[in-house]
C-alpha cells in the first residue's frame, strides 16, 4: 500500500521499535520514568522553554494547552481552519467552557493582525475575556514567516494576550526555514509538537512552556486522563525520532515538490505545495472514479475537488513514480 492520506500513517521502523524495547521505564505520574523525563528535557532544550510535558496525542496536548491558558468564560482567537478549533471536536468549548473566536487565515496561513485586533473584546461584562492567540505552524503545509511570528509576538505583548503555537508539524517549518526550533519558539509562550506526524512515532506529543505553566498543564493532563505510567516505551520512540527523523523531513518536502512538478507536467492543476503537502485540483465529477482507480492499485488517497497528498517517511521516490504512472493512466483512460 502507498498511503498518501496523511503523515500520521507512518509505522515505527525496526530501529525505533528496538529503541522502545530497550527503554528504561518508571511510573511517570510519580515523575519516575527516566525516558519520559529525558524526552521532556530534550523538548525543553530544543524549544528554549523552561519545561515540557509528554502527551499521548496532539489533540490532548492542544486541549490542555488551552485549559492551562484560559479559564471558564475566556476566549482564544484562532484560525477558521485550525486543528484546535475545527478538528478537535470543540474540546476547548465542551470541556473547558472556553470560547473560540475563529477568524479567516490569509493565503500564507497567517492570521492577519488587524483582524486579530478587531476580534479582541473590550473589557466589558457583555463579552468573553480574550486571553490567547493560537497559531498553527505549519498550517496546511504552509510555514509561517519568522517576520510574521515576531510581529505577532510583539502584538500579543502589547495587547496582553498569550501566544500558543500548534506545532504539530513545527519540525517541517524548522527544516524548511533551516533554523533551530528555538528560533521559532522564541515567538510564542507555548508550543505543541507532534511526534506522530512526519517524525514517525506511533503516538506522542509534547507541550513546551514555562515551569509554572507546565505545572498547571500537568494537573489538567491528569484530569484529561493523560497521566500515563510506564510511558517510557513511547517516549523512547520520541527520542529516537528527534535524533533520526528531523533532518530527513527535507526528503518529504523534496518528494512533495517533485510529485507536484510531475503531475503539473501531466496536465493537472497544482493548487499549492509547501513542505510535505501537495494540493491537486480534481474535477468534481472525477473524484469518485479517481478514488476507486487508486484503491484498485493499492494507493490510498483522500480525493476531493482539491485533493491533499501528504509525503512521509514510508513513501519514497520509487513509490511516487508509481503514483505518477497511475495518475497518467487515469487521465488517458
Ligand atoms: C495541525 C494539527 N494539530 C493537532 C493535531 C492532533 O494530533 P493527534 O492526531 O495526535 O491528536 C493534528 C492531527 O492531525 C494536526 O494536523
UniProtKB/TrEMBL annotation:
Residues 3-282 form the Aromatic amino acid beta-eliminating lyase/threonine aldolase domain. GO terms for molecular function: L-allo-threonine aldolase activity. It holds the Pfam family Beta_elim_lyase. One of its GO terms (biological process) is glycine biosynthetic process. The modification N6-(pyridoxal phosphate)lysine is found at residue 197. Its EC number is 4.1.2.48. InterPro entries: ArAA_b-elim_lyase/Thr_aldolase, Low_specificity_L-TA-like, PyrdxlP-dep_Trfase, PyrdxlP-dep_Trfase_major, PyrdxlP-dep_Trfase_small. The keyword Cell wall biogenesis/degradation does not apply. Homotetramer. Belongs to the threonine aldolase family. This is Low-specificity L-threonine aldolase.
Amino acid at each position: 500500500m502507498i498511503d498518501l492520506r496523511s503523515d500520521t500513517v507512518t509505522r515505527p521502523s525496526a530501529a525505533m521499535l528496538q529503541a522502545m524495547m530497550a527503554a528504561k521505564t518508571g511510573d511517570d505520574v510519580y515523575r519516575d520514568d527516566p525516558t519520559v523525563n529525558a524526552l521532556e528535557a530534550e523538548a525543553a532544550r530544543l524549544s528554549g522553554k523552561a519545561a515540557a510535558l509528554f502527551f499521548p496525542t496532539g489533540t490532548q496536548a492542544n486541549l490542555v494547552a488551552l485549559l492551562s491558558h484560559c479559564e471558564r468564560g475566556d476566549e482564544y482567537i484562532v484560525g477558521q481552519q485550525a486543528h484546535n478549533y475545527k478538528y478537535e471536536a470543540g474540546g476547548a468549548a465542551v470541556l473547558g467552557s472556553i470560547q473560540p473566536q475563529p477568524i479567516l487565515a490569509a493565503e500564507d496561513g497567517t492570521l492577519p493582525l488587524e483582524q486579530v485586533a478587531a476580534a479582541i473584546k473590550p473589557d466589558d461584562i457583555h463579552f468573553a475575556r480574550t486571553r490567547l492567540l493560537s497559531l498553527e505552524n505549519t498550517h496546511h503545509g504552509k510555514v509561517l514567516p519568522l517576520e510574521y511570528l515576531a510581529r505577532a509576538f510583539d502584538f500579543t505583548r502589547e495587547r496582553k494576550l498569550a501566544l500558543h503555537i500548534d506545532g504539530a508539524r513545527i519540525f517541517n517549518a524548522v527544516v524548511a526555514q533551516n533554523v533551530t526550533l528555538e528560533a521559532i519558539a522564541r515567538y510564542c509562550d507555548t508550543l505543541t509538537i507532534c511526534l506522530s506526524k512526519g517524525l514517525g512515532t506511533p503516538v506522542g506529543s509534547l507541550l513546551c512552556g514555562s515551569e509554572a505553566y507546565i505545572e498547571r498543564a500537568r494537573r489538567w493532563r491528569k484530569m484529561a486522563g493523560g497521566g500515563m505510567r510506564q510511558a517510557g516505551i513511547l517516549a523512547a520512540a520520541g527520542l529516537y525520532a528527534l535524533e533520526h527523523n528531523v533532518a530527513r523531513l527535507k526528503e518529504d518536502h523534496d518528494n512533495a515538490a517533485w510529485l507536484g512538478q510531475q503531475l503539473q507536467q501531466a496536465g493537472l492543476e497544482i493548487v499549492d505545495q509547501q513542505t510535505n503537502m501537495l494540493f491537486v485540483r480534481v474535477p468534481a465529477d472525477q473524484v469518485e472514479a479517481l478514488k476507486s482507480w487508486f484503491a484498485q492499485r493499492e494507493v490510498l488517497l483522500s480525493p476531493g475537488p482539491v485533493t491533499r497528498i501528504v509525503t512521509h517517511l514510508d513513501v519514497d521516490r520509487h513509490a511516487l513514480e508509481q503514483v505518477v504512472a497511475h495518475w497518467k493512466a487515469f487521465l488517458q483512460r
